Every structure is written in C-alpha cells, then in structure tokens.
Amino acid sequence: MSYVELKDIRVSYDHKNDILKDLNLSIEKGELVSLLGPSGCGKTTTLRVIAGLINPNDGEFLVDSQNLTKVPVHKRKFGMVFQSYALFPHLTIRENVAFGLKLRKEKKNVIDQKVKDILAITGLEELGDRYPKQLSGGQRQRVALARALVIEPKLLLLDEPLSNLDAKLRVAMRIEIKRIQSQLGITSVFVTHDQEECFSISDKVAVMNKGIIEQFDTPEEIYKNPKTEFVARFIGFENFFQLTRVEEGKYKAGDGTIFLSTRQWETDKRTGTIRPDDIDIVTGTEPNENNTVSGTVKVRTFLGKSYQYEIETPIGALLVNESDDVIYQVGDSVTLSIPAHKLIIV
Amino acid sequence: MTQRRIPYLILAPGLILLILFLVLPLISIIFPTFFDGGFTLAHYISFFMDDYNVGIFWRTIKISLIVTLVCVLLGVPTAYYISQSPKKWRGLLMSLTLFPLLTNSVVRSFAWITILGQGGVVNNTLMGLGVISEPLTLLYTEFAIIIGSVYLFLPLMIITLVGILENIETEIMEAAETLGANRLIAFVKVVLPLSVPGIIVGSILVFTGTMTAYTTPQLLGGNRNIMLATFLYQNATALGNWQGASVIALVMIVATLVVMKLFNVVAGRMDKRGEVSA
Amino acid sequence: MRKQIGLKIFAGLVFAFLFVPLLIIVVTSFGTNSTIQFPIQGFTLDWYGKVFENQSFVNSFLLSLQIAFWGTVLALLVGVPAAYSLARHSIFGRNWIKSFFLSPTIVPGLVVGYSLYQFIVIQLQFPLIQGLLLGHFLICLPYVIRVVGSTIEQLDGSIEEVSWTLGCTKLQAFMKVVLPNITSGIFASFMLAFINSFNNIPVSQFLSGPGVTMLPTSLMNYIEYNYDPSVSALSVILMLGTVVLMFVIEKTLGLASIS
Ligand SMILES: Nc1ncnc2c1ncn2[C@@H]1O[C@H](COP(=O)(O)OP(=O)(O)OP(=O)(O)O)[C@@H](O)[C@H]1O
Ligand SMILES: [Mg+2]
Predict the structure, then answer these.
(1) Low-confidence ranges of chain C (pLDDT < 50)
(2) Residues of chain C positioned with their CB less than 8 A from the CB of B25
(3) pLDDT tens digits, residue range B181-204?
(4) C59 and C37 in one domain?
(5) Residues A107-129: pLDDT tens digits?
(6) A44: CA distance to ligand 1 center in Å?
(7) Closest Cα in chain C to A151
(8) Beta bridge pairs of residue A316
(9) Looking at this predicted complex, what is its ipTM?
(10) Is Nucleus included in the keywords of this UniProt record (chain C) (predicted)?
(11) How many domains in chain C?
C-alpha cells in the first residue's frame, strides 16, 4: 500500500452534481505529485479533501495506513500553502512561522531553533521582524512555505502557490520549492494548471478532468504517451484524426491511407494524434506511401522561431510547425509525413 | 454532526435576545389592538375615521415630504461640491458635516429655539431694525418643525450622497462638457441621474427619520403641531390611552415599511428608464 | 469656472446654515443675563459651573455613560459572533437573518421604547433600568452587525483555514487569527454604537423614571421649564465631547471609517 491513498473519493457541494467522482490516487513517501488540469476540474477540491477542509461524501483517505477520513483538519498536521499565501497580517514573519509550533506547546528554545533553521533554509533570516505587508510577493511565498514546513508535516499541500508571481520569479521559486522539498524529503501535493511548471517540478503528475483523474504517470510518460484524447489535447497535441484498426500496429484513415505505428495500443482506441512539431513537410516522397498525406497550405502564422501552417488534407486540417529553412506560401501543395514512432493512438 | 450546528449556536444568543426583547414586546402591544372579544379592525378603522387623527397623520406625511425635498435640494449640490473638492479639503468638509450628525439632537433642536423664539435671534434682529413691532410667532409652528428637521437630517443626506458621488469620475463630467454641455447642463444630465441611488437611500433615511422623530416636533412643534411620535407619547402618558398608543405604533411601523418600499419601487422604475434611453 | 463659483457660494451657505445655530449656542452660553440672549451683554463662565452643580444633569450624565457603554458591550458580545457566523458560514436564510439583526433600525425608536416598557417593565415587572439597557442594546446591535460584518467579509478567509491546518481549533482560530485582524472594525462599531446610544432620546423616553433618566432626556425636560444659559453651557460641553470623540476616531481609524 502506498503512503497516501485516496480511495473512491466523491464530493458534491450541492448534493446534485459530483465535483469529484470516485477519485483514486496513490502517492509514495517522499514524492512530489502534481494535480494538473483546466480551471474548475476539481484540483483545489481534491487538495482540500486531503487537508481535511472538506469532508468527502464517500470514500476513504489514508496516510501511512491510518484512516484519516474523519480526522478534523487541525489534527492532521499537514502543511498547506495557499494561492493568496494567507499570512497572518498581525504577526511578524517570525511569529507567523512559529505559530504552528506554539500551538503544539513546544519549548521556547526548541521553537526558536526550528524557526531559525527554517528561515535559513528558505532564505528569510534577515526578514524575521518584518510584517507580511513589508515583503515582496516572492518573500511572502517563502514565508508561507516556511510556516507550512516548520511543523514537519507528514504531507505538504500547495495550491497554485506560484500563480501570483511574475514569470521570472515563478521559475526561480519552483526550483527553490523542489530543492527544499527533496532536501527535507517531504511528501507533497502540488496543484497547478501550468503544464511546464508541473512537468519541471513533479515526480508524478495526475491529469484531472471534470472530477476524475484521466492519467497518473511520470511527466515524461504523460508528455510522450498521453492515454486519452483529453490528456493529449491538454499537453499540446493539436491534430486528431479518425482511424480504423487493421491489425496490431496498422491503421487505416478515412481516405484509405495506411498508418503504421511502432507501438502497441489498446484495441479499442481509434483516434490518431500527433504534435504539430512532429509532422514533417517532405519532398521527393510519393503521397501514396504509408504514413503520408498530401495537402494544401491554407494559413501561415509566424511564431518567431518557426512558422505554423494549417494544411487542408483528406484526413482533415492538420497543424504543422516547420523551421524557416523553406517557407511555403498559402496555396502551395505539400506532402506531410507522420512518423510511425511519433503517432499516438488514443 | 454537532459541527453543523455550531454556526447556528453562535447566532442563537443574538436571535434569542432580538426575539425576546424586540419581537415579543412588539407583538404584545400590537396583538391586543386587533382583538376586542374576537378579531377586529375597529381600532384602526376608528383611528382613520377620526379627523383629528387623520390630520396628524397627513401633517406628519406632509412635513416629512417637505423636509425630504429640501434636504435633496440643499444636499445634492453641496455633496457634489464636496465630492469634487481636492482630497485634503474634502476630508475637512466631511468632518464638518459629520460634526452636527454626532451632536445630540436636543442640542440641535434647542439651537432653533434660541433662533426662532419670542425673544430669539430673528425677532430681536427684526425688531431692532424696526421691520416689525410685535414679535413674530415662528416657534411652535410647522415651519419650526420643518426647519429643525432639515437641520437635523441634512448632514445625513449629504454624507450618503458624497459616498455615491465620489465614485463618479471627474472624466465623465469633463466628457460631458467636451460634448458641448455647459456645467449646469452637465450637472443636470450627468450628475443628477448618477446620484439617483444616493438620493433614494438618503431620502428613505430622511423621510422615515422625520416621520418617526420625537425630539424635534416635541421641542419645536408645541402642542398644536403634533406629529405621530409625539401623538403616541401623548396618548400613552398624558391620556393614559395605551390602546391608542399601540395603534399609532403599528401605523408608524407600517408607514415606515410602505415608504421604504415605495422609494425602492421608484428607484427601480428610474433604473429601467435609464436603461431604455441608454 | 463661473458656475463653480455659484456652487461654492451655495455650499458655503449650506455650511453656514449648519454651523451658525451652533455658534449662537456657544455665544449665548457666556451671557450674564438669566435668560438666553443674543447678542449677549457681559461675559461669564458661571453657567458652566451651574451645569455641574445641577445634580440631575450630573446623575443622568453618569447613567447615560453607563447605559451606552454596557449596551454597546452587550451588542458586541452578541453581535461579533453573529456577524462572524453570517459572514463565514453557509447559513440557511442568511439574508433574512441579517435583515432581522438590522431590523431595530426600521422600528421607530419611540415604538421600541414603548413596547419594551409595556412588555418588560409593566407585564414582566423587570426593573426600569434593565428595560433601558435592553433598549440601548437594540440600538447598538445593528451597528455591530453592519460594521464588524463588513470587516470580516473583507478579511481573507484562507488565513483561518491555514491556522486550522497548523493545529488551531475553530475557537482558537477565531481568537488568535480573526479577532486580532478585526479590531479596527470592532472599535469603529463601538464608537458608532456608543455615540448613537448616548445621543438617543426616543428609546429612553418611555424607559425613564425617578433616578433613571438619561442625559438627553433630562436636558429636554429641563428645556421645557427653563430658558437659561446653563442649557447652552451643557450643549457646548456636549459639543466639546463630540469634538474629542471625532479627534480620537480620526487619529485611530480615520473618520472615513464611520461615515
Ligand atoms: N464552495 C463551493 N460550493 C459550490 N461549488 C464549488 C465550491 N467550490 C468549488 N466549487 C465548484 O467545484 C468545481 C471544482 O472547483 P475547484 O476549486 O476544485 O477547481 P480547480 O480545479 O481548483 O480550478 P482552478 O484552477 O480554477 O482553481 C468548480 O466547478 C467549482 O465551481
Ligand atoms: Mg483551484
């Protein structure tokens, strides 16, 4: 059994619509797991169930084989970082960080030492006597993290902790969070809807859609092998076309073109998909070869480092990114190659 | 599931105190006015059949209406002036408006006794100038009640309006002017419509306030210009007519609610018209 | 610019209307004549002394202070938790309950006092002073609900949630995290409720009797039979009190917070 287990969690705010539908998730000790998904898919709700801020209508929540489903939030001893940071405005940074320890009635010198250590780890030594109002966004972020970490939580929960920071700081802070998390070996759940942020920081990613987890895998696996159309779309696959299965590794498109795939797919999957980057515009190939289609350029968009073409083909309109080595004009006829090892069937 | 009840437990003391000491007392005085053996409206019918009572009722409504109107007329331009002043100056003007509001209403009514009385400022001045030979009867008139009530409620109207007018940006006025409207027209066409919500809120406060006021009519109205509140007090104490006092109490409550409702309906109408023309 | 001058004159006249009567009171309080005169002949401070010699003024002043203070405290004790519950919990019929808490402002003050007198004092035989206290509690409650309620609504709710995750019970979170951050709202509602209770007449009108008279009522009774400058002097003292309170509020909260 994994360190953290969510079993068949169901949540409904209004007793009509289920926001989470029999959600299952297992997290190993020391892992950083991200919940990734579009707005409103239930990421925050899942995190709040874990924290104990919401009681699930059904299902169980276990940590270290202990059933915590009915344990109230203040007894769970998890650290939580909110999007708004939620620092206590009336307390100094030091008092903010010491808050949880004081509640635990620890000895004063123990508290002082722990607070000092965590302020050092998070790079806040100088700021202990200031009030939250006197800090920058990135500093507040660190205080929120320090306050959650100092109680040595079994679990660290972060709800879009970086979304209020500017782009540069966001990258710096996510590296920082990852460093501290692995240094302390703390099991963490990280909510985000930013794909890059999520992939760079996580050991594993749960892609959520409308209250269910569509795929739970390592970032590499999700990037390379999305299991469902939703996941594929969410992580940047933009070309989808219907296929019929001929045999293992061999598919046929509506116009009769044969597509070979080097990988094994579940037999009920029927949609081919590929990233715009992975399609090549080729010359010198007969259009009736396998894995190729011919088409006409409809739209050209300049993307900076490359051009994006929208190409009308017998299997549908396809988006293709190409470098500026050869620039095609609207109306040009081209042949597209969809490599067998890049074709995904979902 | 005791967790679920906590929010209601926290509310309970307040709710219970309100029920025990506001609702129950009100019921206890109003309930008997509907019973005389069996259910009856006789007390209310006879109240409104009596010319003297009806006279007091209409006087109260009339005075409240005039006071509200005067407060709007004096308040809107003043509030507009305050809201357009530089920030520092505005703070001072707001404190000046707040000061009378926080000063006891007996003091504020008393000021008008010294002004309007037989040997008061106005009569002294006019007689000194030889304009009149006999002192005018200014105090203990409807006029005295009106001026005293305006004096009482004008600050409230101004403060309510400033809150709304502050949110109208100067640019809107400037835009109106660049379109060729002179300041007065811009004021009438732009500021007035935008301040309607403030005028409505302020008017509700002033109207219901005047209608139920006790201090000012008591001090400035004398015995001949009785209003509902003073009438209630008279009935209960001097005449020992508790039943009658209770009838007036309900009349006052209902009148207050009706006036609030009316003003809100008017406000709704105005809003709709604004939408149609826009 | 010409139109602005018209507006300026208009506003000037309105402020003159608001302040000249009060100035007249100030001036008359220094007059030597035994009835109020304006303009005054001679100058004396005697009338201020007379105010303090008048036992009924002094006693009713002390009573007014106590009733306004305890009425406000009671309203805070009951109202702050209620305002918190209304702002933070999903309460069934929330808007109705909130209107109910604000309803003492809709019932005319004289009627509040009258019904309390009839029910509490006459029927239930409560001491008059308890009825008076309850009446003033009713005046104070809406201010607490409104001002404290809006302060709580403006407070970021996640600071409470974070304190729970750090180990606070709901009660501890309220005491350690909510209360310290709504002190300005509590203070503002205290000032508002106290001032309004202190100045209120209609509610106390029925609820007074021998030895139980609030200052404004006592002043009003005095005016009915007397027309001497000690009334002016007391008025000036009350105005000074207002100035002091306004100064305190301005220095602590800013006057904008109560207007
Ligand atoms: N307190 C609530 N009462 C009713 N519905 C709610 C409540 N909180 C969230 N919801 C609904 O539940 C769904 C999931 O919300 P949740 O906050 O978990 O989304 P999210 O994935 O965190 O989205 P975001 O990325 O925008 O933060 C949404 O449709 C939302 O409208
Ligand atoms: Mg969220």
Answers:
(1) 1-2
(2) 115-116, 118-120
(3) 677 777 777 777 888 888 999 999
(4) no
(5) 999 999 999 999 998 889 999 99
(6) 7
(7) C166
(8) A313
(9) 0.91
(10) no
(11) 2
